[in-house]
């Protein structure tokens, strides 16, 4: 017979408290799917919108400082260009999030008009410059999306004829500066509005996305919100493979010809860098940065750690292959004969297959319709 001592009672009490504490923690911990939504939203989506808002503000400030100087210096002009590139990278982090506030009132088109198959950007911007209208934020807001956003700014900053420093020093310079500042300021307004729409202190779309349930008409259950993340991954890689890479370089079929002016950011020759940023951001979405992401959900809940590892490797290999492409995509000659391009295409195909075929099956979630499906 075991003697019941005071020490034994204390040990039993500590054990009971420990069990109670574990049970309480378990009861308070959100379900895995809810944790994926919360961590992905807070650590990736909200952070990405904040970064885009911040970089667009720095771009607007750099444009204003450049144009406020008595004479336009090359150093100040290069600073505007640098801030434009940083804004493009930040935009690449939210470009594929085709759900929520970004879909309201053509917000994405206000940020980027692409592809520009008829060179409308150059024509519309120059028409606006030749007009007698005041070029301010209101005029830009009332204008077509063609003259708004990063695409219009790329023309004003990088076009071989219209985007040189000399263009701001001649007779048309003042109006060109007015337009540069107005478009950059308008862009920041759009970016800041999107961030505000997501953040808890603003429109709090974050709460709508992660607090699913029968009282949430848009997301009555976790699977619908998770499907948006799945669609984002698939549509994002599809957009890179088809529209940002294969079609412009004529790699989408045996009979296709390169259409180099369909490349994203061809004037600044920044297409490859934007693709790398897209892939980095999509991998971060998959991982919820360093939080509990789809990668953990696959491993813990679906017992598919093998697939999670394959997808991780697919992103890592695709990013490495993109970085290995020499020079810019715009300066590529004979794409079908360049080994680095073919290798990148192969890596993208394998990654897309994992995301489009294996991942939905493993998650038990069907891919939804997205605006980038089809031709």
TrEMBL record:
The lineage of its organism: Bacteria, Pseudomonadati, Pseudomonadota, Gammaproteobacteria, Cellvibrionales. It comes from the Bacteria. Pfam families: Peptidase_M75 (PF09375). Its main location: other. It comes from Zhongshania guokunii. It is found in: Cell envelope. InterPro entries: Imelysin-like (IPR018976), Imelysin-like_IPPA (IPR034984), Imelysin_sf (IPR038352). Keywords: Signal. Residues 45-354 form the Imelysin-like domain. Residues 1-34 form the signal peptide. This is Imelysin family protein.
